[in-house]
Design goal:
The protein is built from 14 helices and 9 strands. The protein is α/β, with parallel strands linked by helices.
Length: about 300
């Protein structure tokens, strides 16, 4: 183990957190992790990391703490309070929150951390489970340039496109825009799929040629097989996209930006969740279009 690499504490080992933490281990980092599920702790240990029984224990000796949890309430739960990150890290530690949360939560966290001498970056990601596994995530960062520069080698072990977008909260704002574009894109693809199928066209052939032209997108490349096979095993759950559409519509409202198409897609995501599909991949927006088009799904 190289003595020059910072010691990492990783909090949150879910669909994204597990492969991301493993990529840091592969890059030579000493990673101590904590999460709520024993199986995920066992997986980390099997990959060469160290499982910690609590947040306090995980972060005690860390140079860098990375968090990857579902939403703002979880970030607040792990950051604050006597058992939380801020009470148990050493001053000077760098806290990198890679969760997708409200920009306001990131700004508040940075302010609270500053009082403890802890530096913070908000660094949400795009690319889903596949991007996490392949270490090709897009990472949008908010915070100070010096902290970003320090974290850059870590980010390079996790992703490919790594950009400082502005002050605290900026990473979350860009992530919110990302989720708006992705949801609208999936919805458009889903509508095209139903239209093509009802027209009797060879769907696989149609999607191939569409993806080669201006209609092509990373979304279509990543989700084509989900559409073709009706395989909605979650890479990114509808429940989480529902949360993200709430973040973007709320943030847009507060800055006075109109999102007319985004608002419609936010409602379609909400309706899919209300029909019990919240645990499925966001490509399951296809099911909503099928229902609207008369199919029994």
């Amino acid at each position: 183990m190289s003595k020059t690499l910072p010691k990492i504490a990783w909090i949150g080992l879910g669909i994204m957190g597990s492969p991301m933490s493993e990529n840091l281990i592969k890059a030579g980092y000493d990673v101590t992790g904590h999460t709520l599920e024993q199986a995920k702790l066992d997986r980390l240990a099997a990959a060469g990391g160290t499982a910690a029984p609590s947040i306090a224990e995980a972060v005690r000796d860390a140079d860098v703490v990375i968090t990857m949890v579902p939403a703002s309430p979880q970030v607040e739960a792990i950051a604050y309070g006597p058992d939380g990150i801020l009470e148990n890290v050493r001053p000077g530690t760098l806290l990198i929150d890679m969760s997708s949360i409200t920009p306001g939560t990131s700004i508040e966290l940075a302010a609270a951390a500053k009082e403890k001498g802890v530096r913070v970056l908000d660094a949400p990601v795009s690319g889903g489970e596949a991007g996490a596994v392949e270490a090709v995530l897009s990472i949008m960062v908010g915070g100070e340039q010096a902290d970003f520069d320090e974290a850059k080698p870590l980010f390079e072990a996790l992703g490919r496109t790594i950009v400082l977008c502005g002050p605290h909260g900026s990473g979350q704002t860009v992530k919110a825009a990302n989720q708006l574009i992705v949801a609208v894109n999936i919805q458009a693809c889903a509508e095209a799929v139903v239209f093509l199928e009802k027209s009797g066209v060879d769907l696989a052939a149609a999607l191939d040629v569409l993806n080669g032209g201006l209609a092509g997108s990373t979304v279509l490349t990543r989700k084509k097989d989900n559409f073709l096979n009706r395989d909605f095993a979650p890479g990114f759950r509808i429940d989480l996209h529902h949360k993200d559409m709430g973040i973007v519509t709320d943030a847009a409202r507060s800055v006075g930006a109109a999102l007319p198409v985004g608002a419609v897609v936010a409602q379609l995501v909400a309706s899919l969740r209300a029909q019990g599909d919240g645990g499925l991949d966001h490509s399951a927006l296809l099911r909503s279009v099928e229902r609207l088009s008369g199919a029994q799904v």
